[in-house]
């Protein structure tokens, strides 16, 4: 019989046990082993059944057990110690508070917007790397004392749970998540009424959302939820699933995340006394509408659009995670237009102003599509990619927004992602790390690796058994699972989302050769694979099925396993237990790829294409690089064949021999050396703490200073100045360039150490010299005369305008390098409140009708 209504009955803990509530409600337990061990001791069997979720555990513990614990002096001492430790963690000064010698300008608060957050499996609001990265960002900010607050959506069905049919086809399940059974608290007004965040839909229809609050250590996380009684059925479903539904559904989710998110932040700060954020960080384009809501707030206070836009940009940071245009959310122009304006959202802003922020008005852009990443970039004064290579890819991908500038000058920097070590490092590794891995005996380090591998084998067998039972197999036909994997065999892990570019099935390119590697009589390998395809991606599902069918083969099923329902709980067992972490995406389509970082923290070696973070930090001491078959002349089939062969060769000729090469002491000494160097040298680089410190120093602090500098008067002045510059710029030209060598050289050839004196006549179209910078740009040139490794030398005005309105600029250019050398000149707008010379996307270069001196060739 089915219940007509569901609700949760929370336990009333005995007074001595009341601190358990606070420990359970603060998600710090998810990365604090001592607190998790305390909860496990409450009821070990209940802890396992709850999936390691303290809220569910406390809701199921028998009253008699609670009464016993309330009298257990040993347990109460541990409880007091855990509660005191949390109090000290939350109130004591940390890295951020200790930065007294740092430049002024640290923000009082930062709002971090993301469509998903992977904090813990007990709060399943993530699909993959973007969400896990966001969760690690919040945790590291908490550890460092950075005054961050997270803003997202609460999806009633999360992403999806994955199982397999008997034929190996992915099945999706969407269990209902009851917020009352999650580590969440509803945000309420002072009188106890739940806070409601309103949005206006076309035709005046309302959309209401409530706000749930999760506490992530020191960091509050606000999650908006549209499943409230005031909404109609369609509006209640807006936050039903992560990345589900059609275009309008996604647009409404992103409007609620961005616009509703800012309103939720204002409500939370007003009710709790939390400082209002000075910096707003948009994690990917999904939350880009937050900038528009902040513009609306300023317009409501009397600012015009241009002034409000400048003020909002100054305090906004945008992070792109996407290396291909197809990965960006883009909406039909008319769909966006319908949801804004007088009878919908943001009535104080003209619809054309909204559209102009997101339209792809650059060569190669789609004229009728609204691009969320483009809007994010236009609303943020500072932007970054998530690895050095991805920063370069992003500058090239978005170069059209800054016409006239070379891609390397596009104002998108990079901060390489990191991972939160306390979340992803096995407790045994953490404990041994205190003894410094550089001095740990080989035998002890190898025994640690074997222990973790053995635990993984046990975990895999249980998960594989559960999967086959779901697939319809009977107990009698599953005895073979007891022999799956071997704690003594080289173990390779591969787990991630399953879009085509990640190439889940590259390992199957030559099935016979893979089988030989798996079944090698002396140096076998075994592989554990996991991953989810998007529910709408049948191509990805076919890749999963292809892998599963190979893994079902009785000849190899004890050596290659596919585990369904990949998530944080599985990952925390998988990373430590593997010896090698495999990653073989199409280069350069992996923006960062943090799974290999998590594996490295546990002494697992990386085997990867040089993409994302591995392109940046690869070293033979840490693992292996899979050669890539780059080049337009190679078709996809040939490319995959070549790269798969390279993968097989590495496994057969280098990786397996090194793992099984044992010395007189029975230990693989060279392998252990690589494990040690991974832990001691690579491990510190991949930490989320390093990442968040870089965000603070390179983006958050400068954004806060810009935000403070752009008070209403300064913002209005800057907006007016930009308008004047844009109006005048078509008339700004470089008319004449003269160059003279000092000392003179026969035939116009130059020698190292000489100087090129430049005289440049320019037209400024009524602009003042203070509005522009005239530069010489010089450096080596390639075969197409493109300047590389450029040096920028400002030239100085020497005279007022002549009779034709031209000004003369002069300056020396030192010839300090040999080889083919070239130069040009250009004019840029300049203002002390610009973050980058390229900010306006305006430059004036010499034209075809310009008079110029001959080029100079150095020798």
Largest sheet: 10 strands, mixed
Query: Given the structure, what is the number of helices?
Result: 27
What is the overall pLDDT average? 93
Question: Would you identify the regions where 5 or more consecutive residues have pLDDT less than 50?
Answer: 851-859
Helix content: 25-40%
Number of strands: 27
Radius of gyration: 30 Å
Broad structural category: alpha/beta
Give the terminus-to-terminus CA distance.
Answer: 90 Å
Principal-axes geometry comes out as globular
β-strand percent reads: 15-25%
Protein architecture, described:
- By secondary structure, the chain is α/β, with parallel strands linked by helices.
- It is 37% helix and 18% strand.
- It is built from 27 helices and 27 strands.
- Strands 1, 2, 5, 6, 7, 8, 9, 10, 13 and 14 form a ten-stranded mixed β-sheet that branches. A seven-stranded mixed β-sheet has the order 26-23-24-25-22-21-27, with no helix packed on it. The chain has a six-stranded parallel β-sheet with strand order 17-16-15-18-19-20, with helices on both faces.
- A hairpin with a 5-residue loop joins β23 and β24.
- α7 crosses α26, α11 (305-314) packs antiparallel against α26 and α18 (442-470) packs antiparallel against α21 (568-577).
- The radius of gyration is 30 Å and the shape is globular.
- The protein starts with 18 loop residues before the first helix and ends in a 7-residue tail after the last strand.
Keywords:
single chain, 859 residues, alpha/beta, ten-stranded mixed β-sheet, globular, disordered C terminus
